[in-house]
Amino acid sequence: MSFVSTLLSGKFIITAEISPPKGTDISRMIRDVELLKGIADAVNVTDNQRGVMRMSPLAACGIIQGKGIETIMHITCRDRNRIALQSDIIGAAALGIRNVLVMSGDHPVKGDHEGAKPVYDIDSIQLLGILKKLTLGFDLADNELSGRPDLCVGAVTNTELNEVGLIKLKKKILMGASFFQTQAVFDAKSFSGFMEKVNGIRSEKVKIIAGIIPLKSQKSADFLSKLAGIKVPEDIVQKMKRSKDPETCGMEIAANIIKEIRPMCDGVHIMPVGKHENTKMILEMAEIL
Amino acid sequence: MIISRLKEFDQILQLLSEKKIFLIGCGKCAKKQHTGGEPEVLELKYKLTAAGKNITGWTVLNSACSINSWDDVLEQNPAIKMSDALLIMSCGGGVSVISRYAGINVYPALDTESLGGVCCNEIVTQLCGMCGDCTIWQYGGICPVTQCSKSLLNGPCGGAVDGKCEVDERLCGWDKIFDRLKELGKLSHLEMIHEPKDHAKKSRGKKI
Question: What is the ipTM of this complex?
Answer without folding.
Answer: 0.95
